[in-house]
Amino acid sequence: GHGGKDPGASGTGRDSITEKDVVLDIALMLGNYLTSEFDDVEVIYTRKSDDFVKLSERTRIANEAKADLFISLHCDAFHDQSVHGSASYVMGMHKSESNLNVAIRENSSILMENDYEFDYEGFDPSEPESYIALSMYQSNYISNSVLLASKIQNQFKTKVQRKDRGVKQAGFMVISRATMPSVLIEAGFLTNKVEEDYLISEKGKNEVALSIFEAFKDYKKEIDSLSKERINNLIKKD
Which of 25, 54, 162, 209 could join 86 via S-S bond, C-beta 3.0 to 4.6 A? Predict the structure, then answer.
């Protein structure tokens, strides 16, 4: 998430580290875990440095690669500094105002893009009505998206004792047009002092990356098992 001229959440303001820095480090750590563990997994990054990448470009990269999963990494923010915890989002109609507000904040990145009105067909990230159409996307992949998101939240809760804010639905532009199961992760709140200290630390970033890795490993095992079962059933029918 974010990058370059788009810093994302700025946190408590006690240091210069912003959301774009934290999530890049987590992404690189996660990628290293994946490539070290799996010979049959290719990791494709939407960015590997402090660059600004349009939301539509991120989806294009994933779609053209015919990726099996799309994972978007973020940190949360809120005006109440006591709010903390981790959440994983899948594409869908927001069930609460707080979910909508998270989507509005993350989607506001498109306002930094040239000709965003044209690229996103008139989508306005600040207008709640714009999210109705978005809710129809990703319907073909929702079950696998929820499966991965649930495993991520379970890892956060049980392995590194993060407050579980649950699996949620909201209209995120960056995952809406992805032609594969997609999850947007809010690893924690940079506006909470304790959580900010955790997320900017090497220990915290590594634990977040490792939690997502373990969830992916469990997800892959389950998906691979289901695929083998379907193949065996087809063989039996023949």
Answer: 162
Phi-psi bin for 227: left (phi > 0), alpha (psi -120 to 50), beta?
Answer: alpha
Alpha-carbon separation of residue 59 from 56, 174, 177, 183 (angstroms): 5, 6, 7, 12
pLDDT digits 0-9 by tens, 54-75: 998 999 999 999 999 999 999 9
Q: What one-character DSSP code corresponds to residue 6?
A: B
Measured CA angle at 215 (ends 179, 30), to 5 deg: 80
For residues 102 and 186, the answer to whether their CB atoms sit within 8 Å is yes
CB 208 within 8 A of CB 199: yes
- Residue 164 main-chain phi, psi, to 5 deg: -90, 110
| Cα–Cα dist 186/189, whole Å | 8
State how far the alpha carbon of 81 is from the alpha carbons of 38, 73, 114, 189, 195, in Å: 39, 21, 33, 8, 10
Task: Compute the distance between CA of residue 116 and CA of residue 209 in angstroms, rounded to an integer.
Answer: 32
Reported as a single tens digit per residue, the pLDDT across 172-222 is 888 888 899 999 999 999 999 999 999 999 999 999 999 999 999 999 999
Residue type, 54: K
The CB density around residue 41, as the number of other CB atoms within 10 Å, is 14
For 122, phi then psi, to 5°, come to 80, 5
Q: How many helices (H) and strands (E) does the chain have?
A: 9, 4
0.85 cut: is pTM over it? yes
